[in-house]
């Protein structure tokens, strides 16, 4: 990822300032919104990384899109533009959320399913993750129809694969290794 070290430094500085002003939670919400918005808009990504568009225009666009953001978040736009680093805003937002979760001992649980999760199932997964790890988690749902059904849960280095595709693969392997069936 481009600008990883630099984005981490900016994210740390923003988090330190937010902690000093007791607004780390609010700024984290802003950063999550910023990350999702930039990921969802290719035009915004292009505008932020374009050398042709002036910094003042970029700042006005960001302040218009994120008009309800906290003052610290809005100030971070100014600093990034001033230092010609606004193109890494997405990475800064992602790193901020990572550092915030690390500070609060919250892990990221990635759940891959064949269809999107509903809220009731998300709550059950959060409870199971808390039971397994002893700490809270945020859920990122990835949709992959190739797993057919079930789910794949990944928390840090741990992975639990309860997908239908995995079960079918195991069943196929057992049939191949079964000498009684192969003689029929």
Automatic annotation (TrEMBL):
Membrane topology: Peripheral membrane protein
One term under GO cellular component: proton-transporting ATP synthase complex
Protein name (database record): ATP synthase subunit delta
Function recorded in the entry: F(1)F(0) ATP synthase produces ATP from ADP in the presence of a proton or sodium gradient. F-type ATPases consist of two structural domains, F(1) containing the extramembraneous catalytic core and F(0) containing the membrane proton channel, linked together by a central stalk and a peripheral stalk. During catalysis, ATP synthesis in the catalytic domain of F(1) is coupled via a rotary mechanism of the central stalk subunits to proton translocation.
Source organism superkingdom: Bacteria
Coiled coil: none
Key words of the record: ATP synthesis, Cell membrane, CF(1), Hydrogen ion transport, Ion transport, Membrane, Transport
InterPro entries noted in UniProt: ATP_synth_OSCP/delta_N_sf, ATPase_OSCP/dsu
Classification lineage: Bacteria, Pseudomonadati, Bacteroidota, Flavobacteriia, Flavobacteriales
Keyword Cell wall biogenesis/degradation: no
Compartment(s): Cell membrane; Membrane
Family: Belongs to the ATPase delta chain family.
Keyword hit for Chaperone: no
GO molecular function, a single term: proton-transporting ATP synthase activity, rotational mechanism
């Amino acid at each position: 990822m481009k600008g990883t070290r630099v984005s981490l430094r900016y994210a740390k500085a923003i988090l330190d300032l937010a902690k000093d002003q007791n607004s780390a939670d609010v700024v984290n919400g802003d950063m999550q919104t910023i990350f999702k918005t930039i990921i969802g808009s290719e035009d915004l990504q292009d505008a932020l990384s374009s050398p042709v568009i002036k910094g003042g225009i970029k700042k006005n666009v960001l302040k218009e899109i994120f008009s309800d953001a906290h003052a610290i978040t809005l100030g971070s736009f100014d600093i990034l533009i001033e230092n010609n680093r606004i193109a890494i805003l997405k990475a800064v937002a992602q790193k901020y959320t990572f550092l915030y979760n690390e500070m609060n001992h919250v892990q990221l649980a990635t759940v891959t399913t064949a269809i999107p999760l509903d809220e009731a199932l998300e709550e059950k997964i959060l409870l199971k993750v808390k039971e397994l790890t002893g700490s809270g988690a945020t859920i990122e749902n990835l949709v992959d129809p190739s797993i057919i059904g079930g789910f794949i849960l990944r928390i840090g280095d741990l992975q639990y694969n309860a997908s239908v595709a995995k079960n079918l693969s195991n069943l196929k392997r057992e049939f191949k290794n079964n000498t009684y069936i192969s003689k029929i």
